Amino acid sequence: MVKQSSIIIVDDDESFLNMLKERFVLEGYRCETATSAESALELIGKTFFDIMLTDISFPGMKGFELTEQARKLRPEMMVIIMTGFIDEFSYDGAIEAGASDFIKKPFTFKELKVRIEHAGMQEKQRVMAITDELTGLCNRRGFFTLAEQQLNLAKRQKKGICMLYADVDNLKGINDTLGHQKGDLALIDTSNLLKATFRESDIIARIGGDEFVVIPVGPERDNVEIITARFQRNLKDHNAKRSRSYKLSMSFGVAYFDPENPCSIDELLAQGDKMMYDQKRLKRKDSRILN
Prior knowledge:
By secondary structure, this protein is α/β, with parallel strands linked by helices. It is 52% helix and 17% strand. A five-stranded parallel sheet has the order 2-1-3-4-5, sandwiched between helices.
């Protein structure tokens, strides 16, 4: 069965909204409309949409800000911005906000469909380029792309960001004694645990063989202790319920991005890596003492 595509259209012109909705429904789309950014975000928070088509200018929150907020809620959603003010329009600003493309008003429905299809093909290629094939998480390139956006946003909003740097303990031992298939399974289990622990809007990536990073971007982004405790509970439950021939274990490091004293992504990773290895050394020391 072919999945029905879904779209939300945001514009303060109700007659324009109704006209577009009618055309999209006839084309087989599930379609919702909103006359304000606030009502659009409420809908997006409750319902998944493949595409958001939004005007750039309406009362209250503007199109770029809406795009930015919507992409936080639904990172996988494609966004196309409509504008009648092409001379004042910033394509770079649209892309930085998270838009896939833009279209100038007035336009024909055929032109809009072509834009959507083109943006969809580009989005598929982009997703493939930034996705880790084994786990389905972001790869290193994808992490740098998304993290750069979050750091720029943090600097503008003057809000700090925490980053978790995680490493699978003894993955080499699992590979050497049980084989690489079991090692791959350990990595897949780890990625599933991370996805179950964190929000869909959070950035979760595998950046190396056994190295994972997470940047929480939702309301809990500063409450790292609660988040890591939740992950450890999920990890404990996983080990208790799954009949694996190994016990899954991870070490964590936490790095902090201070907008008043900004650093690069590489510096943030180095900070998290150091904290993670400090925890790993403590684990080894405790293990030797117990033995």
